Amino acid sequence: MLHIEKEQMMKSALVVIDVQRDVVANAFLRDEVIVNISGLVDRARKEGVPIFWVQHSDDELVKGSEGWAYVDELRMGDGEPAVHKQFGDSFEGTNLDELLQESGVERLVVCGAQTDACIRSTLHGALARGYSATLVSDAHTTDDCTWATPPLTAEQVIAHTNFYWKWQRTPRANGGTSRAAEVVFAS
Asked: Which residues are paired to 70 by β-bridges?
């Protein structure tokens, strides 16, 4: 309980990762996850919690294309920064760390896509930089990885990530998970 109370006293930010049209087109529980993310965005705005929108681009997901755009169900608000990235970790090659520091953020509440790539990379990048990071367990998604060895369904990937992220710790920061309805932002 002490861990949760300490986390809730930290200044938090909501980080929405790669909920772009082509990224989530075939994602597991796409609509339910987007509803949960939308609810988090609404709550963060009401509580004055900063929101950072991360948007990926590469040779297959071309910046400025229709597929690169965020899904229609989610809208960036005025003054909410967009962080453009080209690597899985939302910190690498971007100004996310600088923006978070300028805002005095110590804890990230993370949601979005793809669980097995950009979500995991960003969570580990956050801990490595000293940010505590809460993964919203019902507000991230991915496609099936049945082509992998061993083959994994999206549901298995999500469940495994939720399981192991609960226990992540460094000397400076903590991981953890929370369901969308139970997220407490500290500001």
From this structure: 20
**Rounded Cα distance, 130 and 169, in Å:** 10
Nearest Cα residue to 26 out of 153, 123, 179, 180: 153
CA distances from 165 to 31, 72, 76, 124, 170 (A): 23, 29, 27, 9, 12
Q: Are 48 and 83 in contact (CB under 8 A)?
A: no
DSSP-derived pairing of the beta strands 51-56 and 132-141: unpaired
> Is 58:22 a contact under the CB 8 Å cutoff?
no
How many Cβ atoms are within 10 Å of 4's Cβ, its own excluded? 13
Q: pLDDT tens digit string along 102-155?
A: 999 999 999 999 999 999 999 999 999 999 999 999 999 999 877 777 888 899
Q: Does the global pTM surpass 0.70?
A: yes
Concatenated DSSP letters of 128-175? HTT-EEEEEEEEEE---BTTSSS-B-HHHHHHHHHHHHTT-B-SS-B-
From the centroid of its chain, how far is CA 116?
A: 12
**Rounded-to-integer distance, Cα 22 and Cα 141, Å:** 13
